[in-house]
Amino acid sequence: MDLQVLRSFQAVAEGTTVTDAAADAGITQPALSRALARLEDEVGAELLQRVGRVLRLTPAGRVFKEHVDGVLDHYDRGRRAVSEIVHPDSGVVSLAFLHTLGTWLVPRLVTGFRRTFPQAQFELHQDGELGLTRHLLEATADLVITSSDPGHPFITWRRLLEEPLLLAVPSRHRLARRRRIRLAEAADERFILLKRGYGLRDVTAELCREAGFTPVVAFEGEEVQTLRGLVAAGLGVSLIPSSPDITAATESPVRYLEITDVRGARDIGIAWLSSRAVPPIARSFRDHALRSSAGR
pLDDT of 177-213, one tens digit each? Predict the structure, then answer.
């Protein structure tokens, strides 16, 4: 067997058709079918079984795929390690970050970094706080940009900047003409929050507690964009991270108010796994991010 056959097996096992997998491998569909049959002969078991028009893993195939995933992962990491030694100023930065940071902070950092390292490539992932921690622990990302310190013993976190949080209200809301507000004034409002497990949910609950009340939860979502949409529909208010794309908007069904009685902000930081060496190009990006945000 060779690595390309293993990659094709992996692709088919994950739902790619044999025709598409063959095209990706640069061979004909019959040639790939024969290669997969030879793989089954070498392993000594049927790995894929046709169900209707698609191929599904057999029990033996599921076991074999777990090991194939490991082999290919180790091989790819080995190639990457060699590339980083030979070409320390290039390579791939595997970066995961909060969805809300994809519209302004991450593009700014990547653009600035590539002025110095034009050959650097990026593998980008977006997720919530819990998902970002998993990216580090499962080694699917070298670095993550998230809000507060994950508080995990194996993860190192450094602060980058403070991101303001604004109270978003519908444009026809009684408070919409205001520019600033004490959060305590919104105690009787219905709040739209992210679901439990998201950092912004915890920050919102803590700020409301500091302001002297527990928010009444009207709706929950998984994306900040969803919160904005529900606010725009007049279904409640929400604490939203301030970013250039919302503060620059002149015509919007949502108004954003500065909070004055509690610290209306959250920390944004960069984190990495303490027990694993950060690859050179990712380390350079981490240092760039810390320098770019120094003093903020």
Answer: 999 999 999 999 999 999 887 888 989 999 999 999 9
Provide Rg for the chain, Cα atoms. 24
Tokens of 57: 């893993």
* Residue at 34: amino acid letter: R
Q: Is the dihedral of CA 114, 117, 122, 128 positive or negative?
A: negative
Q: Count CB neighbours of 294 within 10 A.
A: 9
Contact predicate 96/127, CB 8 Å: yes
35 membership: H or E segment, kind and range: helix 29-43
State pTM to two decimals: 0.67
Asked whether the beta carbons of 48 and 12 are under 8 A apart, the reply is: yes
The contacts of residue 70 (CB under 8 Å, 6+ apart) are none
Cα–Cα–Cα angle for 76, 81, 82, nearest 5°? 100
- DSSP E strands in 102-153: the ranges are 120-127, 143-146
- In angstroms, the CA 166 to CA 164 distance is 7
